[in-house]
């Protein structure tokens, strides 16, 4: 027993030193990535301003405030900053190489194996299964066998870094080709006023703004210009410009330059989660219309070989008269059969196969939509919110945990539809085509 405790204590010291080294590496990487991105952005804007009238008005953000200047002043400012960033990136690159060498030598010396965030959560489910004396099924989980001669370390930052460096590069010019470009002069109200903010997310805040013709639009402004944020930005543009459906939010245009943003149609009804929490009897007559429209939109995007990737009540908007439901937030959208980049999405709506490192398919959207339908009818959370997230994920994946589909609030016809959406095995789930057909046919 003492020997075992001594080994554990020594491993803890190794892990702590490793984490410290890894954190130092990641700090430098983040600094380098930020500086390199800033330099690219400065160069891009500087080149765009070339040839423009130096006296022309220009805008930039500083300290969260929108500042007005002119092209000549901004160009000089950009040129000076580009020179500083070139020196800084060279210094950071040298610093990073030295720290990486130290890190790699330590990993080799102590035979350390790094597992991703997703594998770490699966390991936690494995431990939970052991505690409950349950056996996990063979298959994808086989790779989780632990080699006790190695030190297992969960490193979320490393997982994110590997994802970002292995992403398929998007040609930004191709993505935005044919998309209308707005300028800040096209809007009449304060863009960064808290009074105008109608939504917040991990990558962007959304503002209700007025055009000069009096029409309101939703302006999704990026919080920063880092690699992850830009990926979601261009991914959403790429998907939405190919969509044309009354139940999918419409892309009106983009903001480019020092401020990146997406201009979307504005819907005054709020999101579905808010509606479910503040339910009114008159909404009942709209339920079938919501579900019918959303299932039609789902079929449309799946026919284009796209998956939404994050279907939940927060990502569904309502029209001003509350009669039309609209899918929004396509930043996490994926092609059918694409590998998920991370352990993303709200766990209650996450299909079980994604807990086993499966590819993201249209059947994942079907499962999430089934959960949303269940919640629309019951106005309840699908699972006990007091439970641990890992425990819920384990039970959904390996114990066939489902919400009560026989809930008396759900019409019998829709009980069958929801059940066919929530099949544990994706191959047994209903297709979006059959789903839409069953909904419009009725009981």
For the sheet with most strands, the description reads:
6 strands, mixed
- For the record, give the distance between the C-alpha atoms at the N and C termini, rounded to a whole number: 65 Å
Low-confidence stretches: 1-5, 135-169
CATH superfamily of the largest domain: Transferase(Phosphotransferase) domain 1
Total helical segments: 12
Shape descriptor:
flat
The total tally of domains equals 4
Give the second-level CATH assignment, the architecture of the largest domain. Orthogonal Bundle
Percent helix, as a range, is 40-55%
**CA radius of gyration:** 25 Å
Average pLDDT figure = 80
Short description:
Heterohexamer of two PFD-alpha type and four PFD-beta type subunits. This protein has 443 residues and is an alpha+beta fold.
Short key terms for the protein model shown above:
443 residues; alpha+beta; 4 domains; 12 helices; disordered N terminus
Write the layout of secondary structure elements.
Blueprint: H1 2-49, E1 57-62, E2 65-70, H2 71-110, E3 112-115, H3 117-131, E4 151-154, H4 156-166, H5 172-176, E5 181-182, E6 197-200, E7 204-210, E8 216-222, H6 227-240, E9 251-255, E10 261-265, H7 272-277, H8 287-303, E11 306-307, E12 316-318, E13 325-327, E14 334-335, H9 362-378, H10 389-398, H11 412-421, H12 432-441
Parallel strand pairs: 3-4, 5-9
Antiparallel strand pairs: 1-2, 6-7, 7-8, 8-10, 9-10, 11-14, 12-13
């Amino acid at each position: 027993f003492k020997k075992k405790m001594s080994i554990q204590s020594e491993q803890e010291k190794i892990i702590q030193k490793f984490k410290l080294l890894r954190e130092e590496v990641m700090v430098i990487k983040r600094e380098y990535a930020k500086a390199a991105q800033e330099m690219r952005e400065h160069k891009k804007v500087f080149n765009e301003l070339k040839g423009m009238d130096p006296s022309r008005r220009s805008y930039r953000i500083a300290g969260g405030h929108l500042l007005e200047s002119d092209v000549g002043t901004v160009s000089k400012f950009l040129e000076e900053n580009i020179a500083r960033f070139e020196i800084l990136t060279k210094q950071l690159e040298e610093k990073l190489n030295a720290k990486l060498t130290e890190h790699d030598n330590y990993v080799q010396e102590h035979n350390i194996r790094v597992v991703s965030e997703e594998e770490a959560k699966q390991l936690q489910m494995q431990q939970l299964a052991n505690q409950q004396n349950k056996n996990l099924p063979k298959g994808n989980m086989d790779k989780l066998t632990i080699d006790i001669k190695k030190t297992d370390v969960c490193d979320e930052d490393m997982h994110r870094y590997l994802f970002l460096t292995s992403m398929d590069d998007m040609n930004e010019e191709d993505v935005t080709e044919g998309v209308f470009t707005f300028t800040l002069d096209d809007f009449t109200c304060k863009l960064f006023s808290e009074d105008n903010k109608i939504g917040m997310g991990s990558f962007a805040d959304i503002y209700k703004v007025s055009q000069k013709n009096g029409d309101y639009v939703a302006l999704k402004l990026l919080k920063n210009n880092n690699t992850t944020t830009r990926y979601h930005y261009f991914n959403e543009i790429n998907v939405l410009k190919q969509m044309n459906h009354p139940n999918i939010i419409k892309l009106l245009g983009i903001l480019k330059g020092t401020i990146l943003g997406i201009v979307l149609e504005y819907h005054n009804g709020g999101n579905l989660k808010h509606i479910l929490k503040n339910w009114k009897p008159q909404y009942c007559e709209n339920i079938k219309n919501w579900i019918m429209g959303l299932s039609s939109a789902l079929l449309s995007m799946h026919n284009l070989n796209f998956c939404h990737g994050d279907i939940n009540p927060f990502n569904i908007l309502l029209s001003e008269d509350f009669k039309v439901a609209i899918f929004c937030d396509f930043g996490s959208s994926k092609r059918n059969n694409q590998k998920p980049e991370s352990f993303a999405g709200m766990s209650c709506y996450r299909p079980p196969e994604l807990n086993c490192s499966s590819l993201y398919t249209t059947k994942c959207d079907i499962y999430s939509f089934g959960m949303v339908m269940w919640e629309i009818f019951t106005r309840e959370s699908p699972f006990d919110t007091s439970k641990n997230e890992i425990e819920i994920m384990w039970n959904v994946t390996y114990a066939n945990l489902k919400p009560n589909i026989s809930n008396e609030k759900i019409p019998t016809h829709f009980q069958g539809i929801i059940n066919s959406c929530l099949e544990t095995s994706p191959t047994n789930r209903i297709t979006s085509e059959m789903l839409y057909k069953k909904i419009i046919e009725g009981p």
